[in-house]
Amino acid sequence: MLYTNVIHRVDARADSRAAMAFQWREARRLALPTTTLLTYPALFMDEAIADVDQLRGDTDELGLHFHNFQSPRFLERFGTRESAFWLLPREVRRAFLDEMMTAFERRFGHLPKSIGGYIIDAWTLAHIKETYPSVEVAITSCFEEGVKMFYGNNRNWFLFSDGGPWNPYFPAKANALIPAADAEEAIDIVAVPHLNRDMIMALNSRDDLFASHPGNLFRARINEGAACPYLFRFIDAWERQAALNGWSYLNIFVSSPWMSPAHWAIGNIDDARALYRRMLEDLKEREERGANSNTTMVEFGAAFRARVKPGDATVCHWKDEIKQAKREVVWVANSHHRAAFDMNRGGALVDFRPYAGRLDGNLGPECPALWNGNYPFLISTEHCGGHWNTAQFASVSDGSHTFSTTDRRTRATVEKTENGAWIFRTEPLRFNLGAHSLVLQSAWEVSAQTGISIRRTVLEYSGDPTALRLTETFFGRPGTHEYPGDLRGITLWADPNTRLPFGYSSKEATVDSPRAVGADVGSLGVSVSMEAVTPALRGVLGDGWLFKPCFRLDLTHAPEPGKDVVTCLTTRPLKNP
Known about the structure:
Blueprint: E1 2-10, H1 14-29, E2 34-38, H2 40-43, H3 46-55, E3 61-65, H4 72-78, H5 90-108, E4 114-116, H6 122-131, E5 137-141, H7 147-152, E6 190-193, H8 201-204, H9 214-219, H10 229-245, E7 248-253, H11 269-288, E8 292-295, H12 297-307, E9 314-319, E10 328-333, E11 337-342, E12 348-354, E13 379-380, E14 391-397, E15 402-404, E16 412-416, E17 422-426, E18 429-433, E19 436-446, E20 452-461, E21 469-476, E22 491-495, E23 498-501, E24 508-512, E25 516-521, E26 526-532, E27 538-542, E28 551-557, E29 564-573
């Protein structure tokens, strides 16, 4: 089932309230349930509350949103000009939450069950759940709105939340971007995204422009007047994800300023409103044919709890919905890692966030991270491309010629196994090694477990197979943006007993028949390894240099046609990071 959720936000300005009235009337016309979240100024404005009382219906739920709070009242009460809720001092956050909750209960006779913010860190979520246990579901992050958004918004939008899941999940107590491994580790709140994103553009562009938000699509100039076929292909894509996971969630959160004639990004408000109206009609049409269920946030939270438990994995198989070209990516996430595989690069692992270190992601002036809520990567082709390219991929050589799996574009099939794992495979790809032809297929198996199983199979080879060598390579560099930090302190290793400290020396260490090669990365609190499930002939540890600041791990095998070469990519917490 695809669960769709229409969310409004009550802002205090008169033009925004008029725009929200339009949104609410359109939803009521179609009998669509909505979630409406009130901001701090609106909560204390009698006119805004009167609008809410007049417009909402029996199926509409009310909650709180922690944005647009800066106002004369807030400044007088709390004495800070900080405009981002997630960056307020903790004592101010506590008092602010108490005041909003008390005012909400006084206005409506009960405490809210749904809340929202652009970022809500783990400390805040845990405090809310302990103090206000009525809260069941929360908007907690904007998927992949980090450095790209900062640059794209004239460096004045400090919203750093790269590295978390795109789907709803149970956040871990250590870090709100990490899915909890079990009920004991989980904050008992269902975390949902601020918006759904285009999962290809999330890798290589500003995904805030390509999302479940008609106003943003106008900003991306992907519309023609009131027409935007991409939006409906986008909804189709999330419908397809339900077939893979058993469920999917689509959040339609268009805050009221985007439907106002005064909004800076909307050239023609009639076109913007017509597209919004058509989108709601589409959601209703889908429900009538049984393709989706229109819910409130709390209703979705209940359905999610019935279907998903802490520790479960999720997958997304995304195709190019903008140009309708052949590019595909596969994303996977569980409590151990988040990973993205790009079929445009032969299925290379192009984004990898190991969660095993359980890094503290809390924000504000008391916290080491201050403003940087991004969860670090070990691989990010987007941030570490070109000469610094980080990725995990394979190459094949006959001693004279070599090719890399990244040399071919491919497509993938994704299927769920009986034990709840997913297997995704590339098409068989044909490569030339001199005068000889070789056909290779790659497959990955992912589940709720810590490892990602990688299978490479030589299906055909016209030459002497004993000359073939297949090498799995991992280029890694920890970070949260494109500028490299100090990599000293990383230790490269090969099992059983070879060690190479990272020191920008460009040295290599070669090991015969290793059981695994890996790197201990103290800054992430994690050890990453490629384990040779199929026995390896050789392993290589490669130190980087200042102009190529990343480390390299290699495992080399002698592949036999028709037999799998299996490697397990595994992350574990460091005992003493």
